[in-house]
Amino acid sequence: MKKNMLPHLVFSSLYFVLALFTILMLLLSGFVEDFKQMFRLITQPYGVYFIIAIILLLAGILVSLFHFVRVYTSYISKVYSLCIASILLVFVTLLYYQFFIQERVYLDFFSLEDASKFTKEGIFDKQLLIMIADYLFYGLFVLIPCVVYFFNLHFDKSKIIGRIIELMQPNFNVIIGGIFGFSISPFFKNGIIGYIELIFLVLGLLVFIYIVVIRKNLLDSYEHFNLFLLLVVFVTMMITNHSFMDAQSYFEVRKAFYILVLVGWSSGWMMKLKPKTYE
């Protein structure tokens, strides 16, 4: 797999910082009594992960605008400018949703009424919109790419659709980031849905590891370390139990990784567009 090194290095660096921070918070809030409330605090409405998501969305908008102008003013096929415009619209829509549509509930730890909400049944039940976001993202950035790599599928580059699909194919780093994000979920507390999602996660992880084993020469040191962090967070989620958390708190973390993956994926294929990329 030919890598575009600048977005590859930037994505790996951002993933490293965010993954390490998340793992540390999960371990502290899961094992250290004095830090039981920490993870809830940083996933509160307009907390740390909200700020991270907003920064990444703004970065995605700026990068998309830059490449849209670059492609539109060059000899690159204008069909790619339509692809970039579509991604730009996604980033703008997500940013608008974050500020003006998404409903958030702020819980006060010092309020007995708010604290009692964490003991109610169904606190980990996902809203329909969250489920759609999780499954759509996992399908597009984990399952489908793993199938493509598993069967070593190729697309007809003589046609514009084939070239677009080949160009936009998520790389190994994107898949790793996607699995990492999906793994931040209370699998053992969400009933049958949680166990089904855990099966999907394990299958995706096993298939990806199998691909890595048979095509190990395609992974560099960054991807190997990113995979190591993925395995660490997977084990962490299996052995830790977090207090003062609900479905929305876990989704705030997943959402930050989803947006990071979306930005890394889109900037990666946009950087590959050169004047020779014509219809």
TrEMBL record:
Transmembrane segments: 9-28, 48-72, 79-99, 128-151, 172-188, 194-213, 225-244, 256-273
UniProtKB keywords: Membrane, Transmembrane, Transmembrane helix
Name of this chain's protein: Uncharacterized protein
